[in-house]
Amino acid sequence: MYNALRPEFGCELADEDNIRALGSEMVMVDGIPFSPQITTTKALTLLGHGITDIEIHFLQIKFTAIGVYIDQEIVGHLQKWKGKSGTELAEDDDFFDCVVAAPVDKHLRIVVIKEIKGSQYAVQLESSVRDRLAADDKYEDEEEAALEEIVEFFRSTYFKKDSVLTFSFPATSNVVEIGFSSEGKEEPKVMKVENGNVVEMIKKWYLGGTTAYSPSTISSLANTLSLELSK
Predict the structure, then answer these.
(1) Residue 9 belongs to domain with CATH number
(2) Which residues 6+ apart lie within 8 Å of 111 measured at CB?
(3) Does some domain include residue 131?
(4) Residue 51: which H helix or E strand, with range?
(5) Which domain holds residue 54?
(6) What is the pTM of this model?
(7) How many domains does the chain have?
(8) From what superkingdom does this record's organism come (predicted)?
(9) Taking 60 as the threshold, does the pLDDT of residue 16 lie above it?
(10) Which spans in 38-140 are helix H?
């Protein structure tokens, strides 16, 4: 169901050359620096990173670089999978359901590589979230209204190169704060989504295991969590 969305903005596994760590300072994701730790209400650690891209006539076109920041306390919620390899975890949707549901702060930082219209991104997000909600019989008027607000938020936005999109999911409530910032005169934009069903499916769009938007991000997150669980 969700793979049908990928022809426009698909994703492939990132090459090792595209993702490398520079000591403890910064992590480079396709040439874009990500801090190994950020602070929201508390310190969050970069546990996964990747890209979204599409291949057209054997040419790889990269759209965004993604950093997944999560409270390290998540490891305590995943002990059932201790001893599993990163490869095993990447294919285990029950594991990623637990990652999504774990009551810890999560923050996504998404940096634009190739310019696109905000409306194009919004349609992609809306379609995936709507399909996931419909599959779980959770798509009602309230969910439709929440998605329409997200589409409207992005309608007049242009994703210039190096623009930053963020999704902040606090541990204490089932909401998401969406932020967008771009260099130049355009002011940063922020909106909050409070429909719990929509928030859950946005999380699953980026963190939902085998059905997630970016397989390279899921692979990276699985490998890191496998290592953390082995400690």
Answers:
(1) 3.50.70.10
(2) 29, 32, 64, 65, 66, 67, 162, 163, 164, 165
(3) yes
(4) strand 43-56
(5) 3-225
(6) 0.88
(7) 1
(8) Eukaryota
(9) no
(10) 86-90, 93-101, 118-135
